[in-house]
Amino acid sequence: MDEEALIRAAQAGDHDAFERLVRTYDQSVLRLAMNLLRSPEDAYDIYQEAFLRVYKNLQNFRFDCSFHTWLYRIVTNLCLDHMRKRKVRRTESTVVETGAGTVDLLDSVAEERAHGDPQRALLSRELKGKIEETLGGMTARERMVFEMRHYQGMRLRAIGEVLGTTEEAAKNCLFRATQKMRSALGAFV
After folding, report:
1. Which of 91, 72, 92, 85 is nearest to 145 (CA)?
2. CB 160 within 8 A of CB 166
3. Which residues pair with 101 in a beta bridge?
4. What is the largest CA-CA distance in the chain?
5. 1-89, what's its fold?
């Protein structure tokens, strides 16, 4: 059964067809939410909410755009709402208390690519921190466009469709986000 037939069957109340749609897109939805929110718990909540909204609103899907675009628009809107509610990016501490005292979990992870080079490992952690800080300083829309382009590999036209805007607007937003990232990472380049 092709995607359109699955959607029409799900619209007619076929629960198996809806389940097949979910299985088709579940990993990409979870990956998108995880990349945008950087929290497994928040991403899983968005994942569940997105498919709940799809289930409730599937009757309203009119095939004006692809199902993928419609679904991604739901996910990105939920993520934007979540980020706006949070306002400040929450970061999980890597420092934990153990019976042996305070331990930084990052110290116990072997840097395989750096082949144990402490200087390279330090630079890598600093770079990651700077990227996270810069992403946190972007507007929600800039961050979303930047991550959809660079982490999801989406094309600007698809990003524009998902966000309900034009390809040109997505391109301009990506330009602003990229400029912010370049400016922040100037010392690392």
Report:
1. 72
2. yes
3. 98
4. 60
5. Rna Polymerase Sigma Factor; Chain: A (1.10.1740)
Instruction: Look up the pTM and report it.
Output: 0.61
User: To 10 degrees, what angle do helices 156-163 and 140-150 make?
Assistant: 140
Number of H helices, E strands in the chain: 8, 2
Cα–chain center distance at 16? 28
Write out pLDDT tens, residues 106-136.
565 554 554 556 777 777 788 888 888 888 8
Distance CA 58, CA 43 (A): 22
Owner of token pair 């076929």: 14
Instruction: Spell out the domain ranges in the chain.
Output: 1-89, 118-189
Tell me if 147 sits within 8 A of 154, measured CB to CB: no
- CATH number (1.20.1560.10, 3.30.230.10, 1.10.10.10, 1.10.3210.10) of 118-189 reads 1.10.10.10
